[in-house]
């Protein structure tokens, strides 16, 4: 059974401030991970369309170097963000008690942030929706270009899609981390006492899961040299993670009810 913990105003303030700092670092890190294959895909597309005269191996090498640099920068940001997430991280998994005064203060801050959260959420979702436009634009050239040329063009246009998705995800990740910090303290929505218990179990496997996905992505991409399409691993991995998280949560809920 999770331990009951009374939170002081200072600890709540430290927790909320730390989560706000981490939100920007982690959001930028996620965005850089999404952006990482853009240079590679652009160079491959321009080379295959004969706009660049360099060899495909040369541009692939340059693109992979940029990809690794961006991923390295993202990892550095994740480490920095995780440092701030460690501040009172037990609040995320343990049942907490608030004094009436502290609860009112947190509720006030949460309500004040609600409008900003809504705006950032709208911006993020809008960018994600707009990300379909570049690929839809490419379909306009079907019939006027050969199949191979269409594929090369779509590879280039997919970078615009990835860019727009990256921007959208940045806003969504940033605002959700901040909003979740209020929910954690207030123990509402995805952070009720029951759900906190299941999250502790899920977090044990999250790191292993994403490290495995990263290994699969890099191994497949280097072996197959299919960088223009291997990025699809990431959205599929995200969907799979969501499904696994839901299954584990249901199992935990069932075990508690029994």
From TrEMBL:
Keywords: Membrane, Transmembrane, Transmembrane helix. The keyword Nuclease does not apply. The keyword Transmembrane applies. It comes from the Bacteria. The chain crosses the membrane at residues 25-46, 58-80, 118-142, 154-173, 205-223, 229-250. This is Beta-carotene 15,15'-monooxygenase. It comes from Lactobacillus johnsonii. The lineage of its organism: Bacteria, Bacillati, Bacillota, Bacilli, Lactobacillales.
């Amino acid at each position: 059974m999770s331990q009951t913990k009374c939170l002081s105003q200072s600890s709540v303030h430290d927790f909320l401030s730390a989560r706000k700092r981490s939100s920007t670092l982690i959001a930028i890190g996620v965005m850089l991970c999404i952006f990482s294959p853009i240079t590679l895909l652009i160079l491959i597309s321009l080379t295959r369309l004969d706009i660049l005269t360099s060899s495909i191996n040369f541009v692939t090498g340059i693109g992979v170097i940029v990809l690794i640099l961006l991923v390295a920068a993202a990892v550095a940001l994740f480490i920095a963000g995780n440092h701030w997430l460690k501040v009172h991280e037990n609040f995320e998994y343990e049942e907490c008690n608030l004094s009436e005064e502290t609860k009112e203060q947190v509720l006030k801050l949460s309500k004040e942030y609600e409008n900003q959260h809504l705006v950032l959420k709208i911006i993020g979702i809008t960018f994600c929706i707009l990300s379909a436009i570049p690929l839809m634009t490419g379909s306009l050239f079907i019939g006027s270009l050969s199949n191979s040329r269409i594929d090369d063009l779509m590879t280039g246009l997919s970078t615009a899609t990835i860019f727009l998705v990256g921007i959208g995800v940045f806003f969504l990740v940033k605002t959700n981390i901040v909003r979740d910090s209020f929910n954690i303290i207030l123990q509402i929505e995805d952070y009720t006492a029951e759900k906190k218990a299941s999250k502790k179990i899920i977090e044990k496997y999250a790191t292993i899961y994403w490290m495995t996905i990263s290994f699969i992505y890099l191994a497949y991409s280097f072996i197959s040299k299919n960088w223009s399409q291997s990025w699809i691993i990431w959205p599929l991995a995200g969907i799979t993670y969501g499904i696994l998280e839901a299954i584990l949560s249901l199992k935990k809920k069932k075990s508690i009810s029994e």
